[in-house]
């Protein structure tokens, strides 16, 4: 196990901000379309974090055109250009899956 941790530690990112479940983050993702590369923003509430080391992921949920969109990001992926903490949220749960059933106005009141 120690050898695996040593190999993984070389690939861990150190430029990530500290964020938790309930926080609003803006994830800038590198998108490759053909031979061009651009950066796409995905801003929403972190509803889950799981795993550790290179296998760590986090789930971000946002409302786009009245439809809820969730995206799971690997935390240490090279496709993530930057993660910005927009707003700190105060929640009392480790996973916020119940937000899927709430209206957008109720979600704003829950996370502040």
Kindly describe this structure:
The chain is built from two helices and five strands. The chain has helices at residues 2-9, 104-111; strands at 24-33, 36-50, 57-64, 67-74, 80-87. The protein is globular and about 45 Å long. The protein has 112 residues and is mainly beta. The longest helix has 8 residues, at 2-9.
- Classify the secondary structure makeup into a structural class: mainly beta
Instruction: Supply the number of helical segments.
Output: 2
Output mean pLDDT: 90
The side-by-side strand order for the widest beta sheet comes to 4-3-2-1-5
- In angstroms, what is the radius of gyration? 15 Å
Helix-strand topology string: HEEEEEH
- Percent strand: 35-45%
Ranges where pLDDT stays below 50 over 5 or more residues in a row are none
Distance between the termini: 41 Å
Biggest beta sheet summary = 5 strands, antiparallel
Helix content: 10-25%
- Name the overall outline: globular
Give the strand tally: 5
Brief digest:
The chain is 14% helix and 44% strand. It is mainly beta and 112 residues long.
Keywords:
112 residues, mainly beta
Topology readout:
Elements: H1 2-9, E1 24-33, E2 36-50, E3 57-64, E4 67-74, E5 80-87, H2 104-111
Antiparallel strand pairs: 1-2, 1-5, 2-3, 3-4
């Amino acid at each position: 196990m120690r050898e695996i941790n040593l190999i993984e530690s070389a690939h861990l990112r150190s430029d990530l901000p500290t964020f938790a479940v309930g926080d609003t983050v803006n994830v800038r993702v590198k998108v490759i379309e053909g031979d061009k590369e651009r950066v796409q923003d995905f801003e929403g509430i972190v509803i889950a974090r799981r795993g550790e080391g290179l296998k760590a992921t986090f789930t971000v949920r946002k409302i786009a055109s009245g439809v809820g969109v969730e995206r799971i990001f690997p935390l240490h992926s090279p496709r993530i250009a930057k993660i910005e903490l927009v707003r700190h949220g105060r929640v009392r749960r480790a996973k916020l899956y119940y937000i899927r059933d709430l209206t957008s106005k109720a979600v704003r009141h829950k996370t502040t």
